[in-house]
Amino acid sequence: MSLSLVGVGGPDGYLQDKRTAVRIYSRAGRVSSTGPVGRVGYAPGVVFDERFGRLDPAVWTASYLPAWSSRDAAAATFEAGPDGLDLSIPQAQQLWCPDLHDGPLRVSAVQSANWSGAIGSTDAPQPFRDGLVVMEEQPTVLGFLPHFGTISVTCSADLSPRSMFSAWMVGLEDEPDRCGEICVMEVFGDTVAGGRAAVGQGIHKFRDPALREDFSAVPLDIDIAQSHTYAVHWRPGAVEFSIDGVTTRVANQAPDYPMFLTLGVFDFPDRPGPAEHVPHLRVSRLTYRPLPEGA
């Protein structure tokens, strides 16, 4: 199966394949089409406001890039409820793609879209090395796919020196070049000390010829154990990054296609740090507001 984006350049862009028309948040904030996939987000209007009282399977896939292994093998450990989403990695959690990933890695992550081609094909988002093929064909779940607008993630984390957390937007790779990334934030535990942490933000080009690499991790006075709001204001030609309403950097470029969001916590067992520690990413709120009409 291949996906194609139809009309994304205009205000009523939508994503569809031969079988499924779906709703997508376009740059004008309107919903252009509906179909059997079900609702996209929690309302067919201009904003997306997720509090994670439950993890809606019509929006969220609770497995990390499952096409390259399987939904079961890549499944997250999580709780959802009145306090939001709590992603964690208990000691018993298995390695992610142990025969393929360079170095042992454990992950608990949720992503707001999922799809793949047939088993044996190369059609799926975010291949992490050359030569990957789909190991389990994925259902098409297109839960939340903004194209420009403001995305905010309010969260806290508990890390050891061998763990990290991140939130990022990435293209679906419905076309190979639509693969760029907007990293909302990324923090490695070995940079956390004394109320400071290096917060990574920026653009990863991957194989998108229209983008250039523009990413840095800047040490900041921030206690990641406390709740903070990390945001991107994404518009044609630029992405503005902020933390708690304070601009931290501006990239003078921007991916120009719909992107899905991943929230995740990661553990690297071969790095120094206590093996008994259980890392957590606790997300209390995710919001999206489209660009104003005509912006």
UniProtKB/TrEMBL annotation:
One of its GO terms (molecular function) is hydrolase activity, hydrolyzing O-glycosyl compounds. It holds the Pfam family Glyco_hydro_16. GO terms for biological process: carbohydrate metabolic process. InterPro entries: Beta-glucanase-like (IPR000757), ConA-like_dom_sf (IPR013320). Residues 148-256 form the GH16 domain. This is GH16 domain-containing protein. It comes from Mycolicibacterium vanbaalenii (strain DSM 7251 / JCM 13017 / BCRC 16820 / KCTC 9966 / NRRL B-24157 / PYR-1) (Mycobacterium vanbaalenii).
